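User:
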Amino acid sequence: MAGKVGFVSLGCPKALVDSEQVLSRLRAEGYQAVPSYQDADVVVVNTCGFITPAVEESLSAIGEALKQNGKVIVTGCLGARPEVIQEAHPEVLAVTGPGEIDKVLGAVHKAIPPDKNPFTSLVPPAVKLTPKHYAYLKIAEGCNHKCSFCIIPQLRGLQVSRDAGEILYQATRLVSAGTKELLVIAQDTSAYGVDIRHRTSEFQGRAVRAQLVDLVRELSELGAWVRLHYVYPYPHVRELIPLMAEGKLLPYLDVPLQHASPKILRAMRRPGGAESHLRTLQEWRSIRPDLAIRSSLIVGFPGETEQDFQLLLDFLAEARLDRVGVFTFSEVEGADANRLANPVPEEVKQERKDRVMALLAEISLQKQRAKVGRELEVIVDSYGEEPGVVIGRSQYDAPGIDGLVYAETDGTVKIGDRIRVKITGSETYDLFGHALGVLPWRPKVPLLGPALSRA
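Assistant: Predicted structure:
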């Protein structure tokens, strides 16, 4: 055995995918992943550096790992700013940036030399940090947008899309191994393939195009749920909505709108405004009325007046978004927004966030009550505290960020099952009901020969 590695993964699902890749490569070289600092020969901390609280959390995690173990390698988004890490924790062994898998491996090799025994170097199955029944599928890295509040292009570079064939081979392997939900992610999922001019690549002996609608059609053929995150409302996104009506794509879009005031959006270097946002949402819902829209908002952005904020409230009251993450503006080192005039006082930011959350909670409560009496398809994530109760998510909810469904069953339902649930009660974000039965599921995956190694 080459050695034992502890791993701390922080940040978004995109960072989680990077962690899975590092751990898979380490396992292939004979290293063992261990769950405690005390058992590890070295600890890798995959950091987030998107906003100030995330930086603080990352620095705290590094400090904890140093205190508990002493040998720490740092990677991830905050690793793109090594001076910040080294100033706080000069004793770290190495610092690498996001997606620099080979550099992480090199640092681990230096701390713990790899085992040369060929019997421990056989390639095992890839490491997954999510449960067996769902997986994040990253289709591109980096971002071409220049939002004034964000430094992702500085941390992760400009967009680099993966070939469609490579993605489909990976998805096929995941579904073959029991994955029933594919969560498609990128910094800007809608722009997938633009940077490589939608070039074609090979999948199972045929050419497939690197374009989002084409990719979703292909993924839908595997039989798993397909859920899209981080979708910008480009015109071609409309082509995805009929796929939802056909049952090929979950009726769910994660669309980071950020605000509704045209003035604030211009300052953010974001497109649109309340009117254009509403037109887009109405168009989508005219095709799939039950479409669930998740979004994220920033309140207290520099220059935001009470009038701008009221415009946001009015928009939310009319748009009736299903799920919304609300953040107060936080300066990020290197972001252009830090230099904007008229900063909003912290107490005003928090007061506005509280007002938004109160409105959103009322909208969510109304939407959840409207589901009582319906039958929903639910994927089971865990067991409840009471015998026979399982906890899952409907097609309208993503893991970790959206609502839950608590369902009473006959005790035979397992984690990963897809079940039909009659909804009998609701709260602000969660639903309650009883299971009507387990839905049959068989993956529709092709037999893979030598191409399996491409996944």
